[in-house]
Specification:
Layout lengths: L20 H4 L19 H14 L1 H32 L2 H12 L3 H58 L7 H42 L10 H4 L8 H9 L4 H10 L11 E3 L2 E7 L6 H5 L2 H7 L7 E4 L6 E7 L12 H4 L12 E6 L4 E4 L6 E5 L5 H13 L5 E6 L15 E4 L3 H23 L9 E6 L2 H4 L19 H12 L5 E8 L8 H5 L3 E4 L5 H8 L1 H5 L15 E5 L12 E5 L4 H14 L14 E3 H9 L4 E3 H11 L1 H4 L4 H11 L4 E3 L2 E5 H10 L7 E3 L1
Parallel strand pairs: 7-11, 7-12, 8-9, 8-10, 10-11
Antiparallel strand pairs: 1-2, 2-4, 3-4, 5-6, 5-14, 12-13, 13-14, 15-19, 16-18, 17-18
Helix pairs in contact: 3-6, 4-5, 4-9, 8-11, 13-20, 14-16, 21-22, 21-25
This protein binds adenosine-5'-triphosphate.
Adenosine-5'-triphosphate binds next to helix 13.
Organism: Streptomyces genisteinicus
Keywords: ATP-binding, Membrane, Nucleotide-binding, Transmembrane, Transmembrane helix
GO molecular function, one term: ATP binding
Length: 711
């Protein structure tokens, strides 16, 4: 086997099988042993220091120190509190403090009131003191009368007893019983005095310790971990005052210091509001409401809450901010299902009803009126915009008079349940889809114009023109044959102009524009379009400038902050500025946590909505070349003018409907007029169309509509 082994080393000197020959022979090995290193002794003071540090930093030492400091502080703090209470009870200190607090808060009326109470207290105290001067004499007299009376009374009882028992010695029996009682009490006190003196101070100590413990009167580090953790702590007036004091607003801090313990006088009552509390704070003069609003995060942290759990709004009262503070973590709990899902008998009323959308932060139902209001919902991607917009449409669909034209420029099926319910449903993200959606919106503009021209008093069914992911339309680069862009925000941009027209004039004739858009910028959501919406809602957004785009400056200046919602965590929570919802007085917006209606539930609701209507065939593409009555259109463009040049008629026709007449030649016009018996004729050497001829032809023409044309 050994011949098969290939050595891996040049001259292997050892083999695993045979030990080397020299290893067998004993060899005397001399080796140099290094001197052991000289270990210098550590000086005593260093060792002592180290030991002291080890002992001082040992967890047990720290725990022991914490216990000692904690309980010592409880006693000291409790003594301070008890002494202060006693001092407050006997002096006018409380009144002085309240006067200072009221003055610091700028509330001079309250200051005067406290001053009056203080004066009354002093007068009463003075009277008591004056009474004391004459009291020893009265006390002595009273004692003499009392003793005499008692002895007299006991003697009378003794005489009655002696007569009854016929035993003269019984006269003093009651008196002797009193003497015995006094003797017993003296003996009792003598016996108990020692233990009382020994125990008394300890009882007093325990009393002040309990007061101090109750007030947590110890440094934070010395408190037990459970008391130290302020997470989820209920909000009390002193916590709010402390949080405000530590906001870093100089005048506020000074005013609160000045007020001392009376700082809570700045606060209104703390009331339970939904899953949190609400309190109004009247700020001292010199502190503005928006200074406090600007410190939301710090205030939240001072209250041991996350930023999104604290809302600061400005109510009607002057110099007042309203704080809403959520119970810790309460906003992360889901809200219940929508009544649209739970109540399958629910119907809607476009004019008078309100869509059940969710809950406000107070936990009250948040319902939105959609009557004659254009709508805009924005938010970052995947925050619940489509679901929120769809919830409104689902409710409104339960009013059978409502019609929908629907463009979903994402096209992944979020709106597919509206097939068979909406008049038009375009779904898809491409430029072709945008073209279709633009034509759909332009169709709504035509409908709006027809409605506007209808006789006064005509009522119109609500027509909701809904475009989800509208930013795709604004950003679309496609142009039509005349080089007019479908997207963009120029004067000739087709989507932009159509939306603008509906915004300007649609409301009164119930043609309403609803748009959902993502991550707004000036490019994908032009200013005029943002501001044309009456109801503006925003889910979580990236920045304050986006919040301003979404909701407008007024709402953001009033405290609306969708940019502070947490993307991902606050899905479905939106900030809303609208006259269609009840917003607490003085606030400019309201935060709504919307119900989540998933696709399946949405389908159930649309099935109900479809059952309310006669079958609707939904168009999924816009048909070009609508049927038009050419002769009637010619009469329309002639108006009141007796004769109009054929060239001008052509121009006016193509302005009326580009699709139908844009490609017409003079020959086309001539043919239609000749067919109707109203052929053009020459006037002053130029071809004209005569109004009377057209009118006569319209009157005479047969019912089969021979003048209709397809463009
Ligand atoms: N009210 C709600 N409550 C809780 N979660 C919700 C709510 N609404 C939506 N969500 C969650 O958010 C997800 C995204 O919702 P949705 O599709 O409406 O977002 P989006 O903002 O329209 O997104 P994109 O802009 O990307 O289309 C849903 O799948 C759901 O998980």
């Amino acid at each position: 086997m050994t011949e098969n082994v290939v050595p891996l080393f040049k001259n292997p000197t050892t083999s695993t099988d045979e030990p080397p020959a020299e290893a067998a022979a004993p060899v005397a090995v001399l080796s140099v042993v290094d001197e052991p290193p000289v270990v210098r002794p550590v000086p005593l003071w260093v060792r002592t220091g180290r030991t002291a540090r080890t002992i001082a930093t040992h967890p047990r030492t720290r725990t022991a120190a914490g216990v000692v400091v904690r309980h010592g502080s409880y006693v000291l703090g409790g003594t301070r509190v008890v002494a202060k209470r006693a001092w407050d009870g006997r002096t006018a200190a409380r009144y002085e403090r309240m006067i200072r607090a009221a003055e610091a808060a700028g509330n001079y009326e309250a200051a005067a009131d406290w001053e009056q109470r203080g004066a009354a207290f002093r007068a009463a105290r003075h009277k008591r003191r004056m009474d004391l001067i004459t009291s020893p004499e009265r006390l002595a007299k009273n004692a003499a009368y009392g003793t005499g009376g008692t002895i007299g009374g006991l003697l009378v009882i003794g005489i009655a007893l002696a007569i009854a028992t016929k035993e003269p010695s019984d006269v003093v029996t009651p008196l002797m019983a009193l003497v015995d009682l006094i003797h017993f009490m003296v003996t009792f006190v003598t016996v108990m005095w020692g233990p009382l003196v020994a125990v008394g101070p300890w009882v007093a100590l325990a009393g002040v310790w309990t007061v101090g413990r109750h007030r947590q009167a110890a440094p934070n580090w010395a408190l037990p971990a459970t008391a130290r953790s302020t997470d989820g702590e209920p909000i009390t007036p002193s916590i709010v005052v402390k949080a405000l004091r530590d906001l870093g607003i100089g005048p506020l801090r000074n005013a609160i210091k000045e007020m001392g313990d009376a700082g809570a006088s700045m606060l209104g009552p703390i009331t339970i509001a939904g899953c949190g509390i609400e309190v109004d704070v009247t700020l001292p003069s010199g502190v503005s409401t928006n200074e406090v609003q600007g410190k939301r995060r710090k205030l939240a942290e001072n209250l041991s809450r996350h930023e999104h759990e604290v809302f600061i709004t400005i109510p009607v009262a002057a110099r007042t901010v309203r704080l809403w503070v959520a119970d810790s973590g309460a906003l992360d709990e889901p809200i219940g299902p929508s009544p649209l899902v739970t109540d399958d008998t629910m119907t809607a009323d476009y004019t008078k009803g309100k869509a059940p959308w969710g809950q406000d932060l107070r936990g009250d139902a948040a319902a939105l009126s959609l009557y004659q209001r254009h709508l805009l919902i924005t938010g970052l991607s995947n925050q619940g915009k489509t679901v929120a917009l769809r919830s409104l449409a689902l409710w409104l669909a339960l009013d059978k008079s409502v019609q929908f034209l629907l463009g979903d420029l994402k096209g992944v099926g979020d709106w597919k349940m509206f097939d068979g319910l909406a008049q038009v449903l375009i779904q898809g993200p491409t430029d072709e889809h945008v073209v279709q959606v633009v034509e759909m919106v332009e169709g709504a503009v035509d409908e709006m114009n027809r409605r506007i021209q209808a006789p006064p008093g005509t009522t119109f069914p609500p027509l909701i023109v809904l475009v989800d992911e509208a930013q795709v339309a604004f950003m679309c680069p496609a142009k039509d044959e005349e080089k007019r862009p479908y997207g963009g925000a120029k004067a000739n941009s087709r989507y932009f102009m159509a939306v603008r027209k509906i915004h300007n004039q649609g409301r009164a004739v119930n043609v309403l524009m609803w748009q959902g858009t993502q991550d707004p910028t000036n490019e994908n959501l032009p200013k005029l379009v943002r501001e044309g919406a009456h109801t503006r809602a925003s889910l979580a957004l990236g920045t304050e400038s986006q919040a301003r785009m979404a909701l407008g400056d007024k709402a953001v200046d009033g405290g609306a902050a969708p940019n502070l919602l947490r993307p991902g965590l606050d899905q479905g929570t939106l900030v809303l500025a609208s006259s269609g919802i009840t917003i607490p007085a003085g606030q400019s917006s309201i935060t709504v946590r919307t119900h989540y209606i998933n696709d399946d539930a949405a389908e159930v609701i649309t099935d109900r909505a479809k059952a309310l209507r006669d079958g609707i065939t939904t168009l999924t593409v816009i048909e070009h070349g609508e049927e038009r009555d050419a002769l009637a259109d010619i009469a329309t463009v002639l108006g009141d003018t007796p004769r109009v040049l054929t060239a001008d008629v052509l121009k006016r026709l193509s302005a009326l409907s580009e699709d139908a007449y844009g490609s017409w030649t003079p020959g086309d016009l001539k043919r239609v007029l000749e067919d109707a018996g109203a052929e053009p004729y020459k006037s002053d050497g130029r071809m004209v169309v005569g109004r009377d001829r057209v009118q006569r032809a319209l009157t005479n023409r047969t019912e089969d509509g021979s003048a209709s044309v397809e463009g």
